[in-house]
Design a protein that fits this description.
Keywords: Membrane, Metal-binding, Oxidoreductase, Transmembrane, Transmembrane helix, Zinc. The protein is of the alpha/beta class and 343 residues long. It has 9 helices and 15 strands.
C-alpha cells in the first residue's frame, strides 16, 4: 500500500511525497486520515529552520522519533478512521474515529495504545483540536487561576483562544487578551475575554495596565499566559505581572533568543516564570492528575466549547505547500488551518 505524506525538506520548503505503508503489526492499527491540523506556531517554527536541529522532535510521541533536522515529517494532529488492526489488537477499534499524534499523512500505522478514540458524540472537526485543547488545559493547570484573579493572555491564536475560553469559566476580576489581529481579538471577546488590546496597549501607560490597576502593590496581573510565540512578548508579559505574579510560558521560541528586562521591577516584584509543556504534567500535580485524567478533561472541554467553529481554512493534502505559504504570510484572518485527506 502507498501513502502520501508531507515532508519539510529545508527552510520553507514543503513536499508531498509518496511512500509505502506496511501492514499493522501486533498491537498496531492502520489509520486512514480525514483531516490533519496545521500548527501555526510549532510547525512554522520547525519549517523556518528556527528549531534546535539536535533536539528530539518529541520524546513522548513515537511517530515523531528523530531530531528536528531536515528532511523530516512533522505534525501531530490527525483525525481519521481505523481501517485495519494487527494481531492482538482489539477488533472493535476497526471503524472507530480516532485522533492520532502523527505527521500529515493520509495512511499510516501506529500502536493502538497511542490513539485517542474520539467520543461518539463529537464531530471530527471538533476532535481535530485535541492537541490544542490539551495544551490549553495544561496551561491553565500550570497557571492555577484563583477567585478574583487578574489574568492576561498574550497571543490569541488557537491555543491562546482556547485557554481564554477555559479561563472565562473562572470567577476572575479581569480576563484580558493581547493580539495584533482584530479578528482574533474579536473572537476572544466572544469566547469570554473581558477586554482585548493590540500589543502596544501592554506597554507602560497603555490601556491594559490601566485595566489592571492604577498603581501600587496591588496593581498588575496575578497570572499571565504567554502563548504568542513571539520572543518580545515575554518581556511585555513580565512587565504587566503584579507583585508575586506568575508568568506561564507556553510559547516555544526555538533558537530565537529572548531579551528580558530583569533589572527593573522583576526582582522586587518577586515574580515567577513557569515553563509549561504539554508532553508532561507538573510534578506537583501528578499526585492527583494523570495523563488519562487530563485526556478526559480535554474531551469534556472540547464537547463544551465545540472548537470546530475555529477551523477557518482547509487545503487539500496535495496543496500543503500552499497552506504553509499562506500561514507564512502572517494573515490575521486565519485561526485553525487543516489539510483535507482524500480517502
Amino acid at each position: 500500500m502507498r501513502a502520501r505524506a508531507v515532508w519539510f525538506t529545508g527552510p520553507w520548503r514543503v513536499e508531498v511525497r509518496d511512500e509505502p505503508v506496511r501492514e499493522p503489526g501486533p498491537g498496531e492499527v492502520r489509520v486512514r486520515t480525514r483531516l490533519s491540523a496545521v500548527s501555526r506556531g510549532t510547525e512554522l517554527l520547525v519549517l523556518s529552520g528556527a528549531a534546535p536541529a539536535a533536539l528530539a522532535a518529541d520524546e513522548h510521541i513515537g511517530a515523531l522519533a528523530g531530531a528536528l533536522s531536515f528532511p523530516l515529517k512533522y505534525g501531530y494532529g490527525c483525525v481519521g478512521e481505523v481501517e485495519a488492526a494487527g494481531p492482538g489488537t482489539a477488533p472493535d477499534l476497526v471503524g472507530r474515529t480516532v485522533f492520532a499524534f502523527h505527521p500529515h499523512q493520509d495512511l499510516f500505522c501506529l500502536p493502538a495504545a497511542d490513539l485517542r478514540p474520539v467520543p461518539e458524540d463529537l464531530a471530527g472537526e471538533d476532535a481535530l483540536f485535541f492537541a490544542a485543547m490539551e495544551t490549553a488545559v495544561t496551561l491553565v493547570l500550570d497557571g492555577r487561576p484563583f477567585l478574583g484573579a487578574r489574568v492576561v493572555v498574550f497571543g490569541l491564536g488557537v491555543v491562546g483562544l482556547l485557554a481564554t475560553a477555559l479561563l472565562a469559566r473562572f470567577p476572575l476580576e479581569v480576563l484580558a487578551g493581547i493580539d495584533p489581529a482584530p479578528l482574533r481579538r474579536k473572537i476572544a471577546r466572544e469566547a469570554g475575554a473581558h477586554a482585548v488590546f493590540p500589543p502596544p496597549e501592554a506597554r507602560p501607560g497603555g490601556a491594559l495596565l490601566e485595566r489592571l490597576g492604577a498603581g501600587g502593590r496591588t496593581a498588575g496581573a496575578d497570572l499571565v499566559l504567554e502563548t504568542s510565540g513571539v520572543p518580545e512578548a515575554l518581556d511585555a508579559a513580565v512587565g504587566v505581572a503584579g507583585f508575586s505574579g506568575t508568568v506561564v510560558v507556553g510559547s516555544w521560541y526555538g533558537t530565537r533568543r529572548v531579551s528580558l528586562d530583569l533589572g527593573s521591577a522583576f526582582h522586587r516584584r518577586r515574580l515567577r516564570l513557569v515553563s509549561s509543556q504539554v508532553s508532561t504534567l507538573a510534578p506537583e500535580a501528578t499526585g492527583r492528575w494523570s495523563r488519562n485524567r487530563r485526556t478526559g478533561t480535554t474531551w469534556e472541554w472540547i464537547r463544551r466549547l465545540q472548537p470546530g467553529r475555529y477551523l477557518t481554512h482547509r487545503f487539500p493534502l496535495e496543496a500543503a505547500p500552499e497552506a504553509y505559504e499562506f500561514l507564512r504570510g502572517g494573515t490575521g484572518e486565519a485561526l485553525q488551518v487543516a489539510l483535507v485527506h482524500q480517502g
